Amino acid sequence: MSRRAAAALLAVLVAAASGERLRAQEDLQQDMQDNGPPQVNGPAFLPWLDDTDTSGPTDAGPSGAHPDAAAPAFDPARLALLPELRVGVVMDPAAGDFGRVAPLREALEAGLRIPVLLIAYRDLAHLQRAILAAEIDYAPLSASAYAEADRDCRCLEPLVAPRLPDGEARWHAIVLARAGEGVASLAEIAGRRIATGPRAALGSRLAQIAAAAAIGVDLGREEAALIEHPDPVAAVLALIRGDADVAFAWSSLQGDAAEGYSSGTLRDLRRRAVETDGLEIVWASEPIAGAPHVVRRDLPQEIRRAIVAVMTGKEVAAAVSSGGFVPVEARDYAPVAAAFPPDAGAASRGRMTPLGGRD
């Protein structure tokens, strides 16, 4: 990275709502035009470059607004609380695909009436570390990444989460068995052949293992009995074939049970015309909210309340996530937190869906 680009990066990150921020962005954009994108070897991030904003941050309207319609002026009282909201997202800066997250920045800036800076991280691990280190204030995380990070710092608060594609706001980890074969509860899975999803999968492995441990069934000591599959559908197919006695999966548990409910593994199987009538759910977790948008708890309370109001508004539902967002709290992730106890070692941080998704 050139010295000019490095200086511009630093200036963008520390500048508040002023012409200084704009000049820093212009310097960095000019450097990128001259020399190409900066090559960052450490935790990879780039500031948001707004190539449509030439007259100052107050002239950039929200997504879909008339180009001549100026956004509301920044709120001095809000600026006194927080000069700028730093939002981290997972994205490869070299790909240049900033357009898909532009509505998020625009909606937050218009609704909060303070400048919003997007910082792109190439993977979820870097994003997670960034919010722990207070490099950013706000991040869309997977449920497991949130639980793991908050376990380490107790410094994060989930504010909103996207609805599932079927419109539901919560989902459940479940345990399936064949009816009439002696497995009727979570306690009875000990010693059985258990088909699971991937090793780091929250909904088809980690949540069930944690719930079993809570009632004294230590599946960690029966590692050979846990048969890993590439996804929960494959795990349930192993159960149907007779290659396993139990399968871990997930479901909305809403809608028509005969059709596999509104979403989840059983629904996926029914869409493939797989017969599931011989299976029964022997355990289900408490409801789990979708992938949370989290903030640091030291963010002013007024700003946190305003973020919830903005993100649950109809305008954001249309521009950012087709299903919209619902307010969430830490208790909505209790089954997830149980999978990441304080004495647990490092684990995978889950899959990342930047703006919406289950986990």
Helices and strands, in N-to-C order? Answer: HHHEHEHEHEEEHEHEHEEEHHEH
Percentage of residues in strands: 15-25%
What global shape is seen? elongated
The largest pleated sheet is described as: 6 strands, mixed
Q: Can you give a write-up of this model?
A:
The chain is of the alpha/beta class and 359 residues long. It has two domains: 40-164 and 290-338, 3-Layer(aba) Sandwich (D-Maltodextrin-Binding Protein, domain 2), CATH 3.40.190; 171-288, D-Maltodextrin-Binding Protein, domain 2, CATH 3.40.190.10. 33% of the residues lie in helices and 16% in strands. The protein is built from twelve helices and twelve strands. The chain has helices spanning 3-14, 19-35, 76-81, 102-112, 124-132, 143-153, 202-214, 232-241, 265-271, 301-311, 314-319, 334-338, and strands at residues 85-90, 116-121, 138-140, 156-162, 170-178, 194-196, 226-228, 246-251, 279-284, 288-289, 293-296, 325-327. The strands form three sheets. Strands 5, 6, 7, 8, 9 and 10 form a six-stranded mixed beta sheet that branches. A four-stranded antiparallel beta sheet has the order 3-11-4-12, with helices on both faces. Helix 4 (102-112) links the parallel strand 1 and strand 2. The longest helix has 17 residues, at 19-35. It is elongated. 42% of the residues are buried.
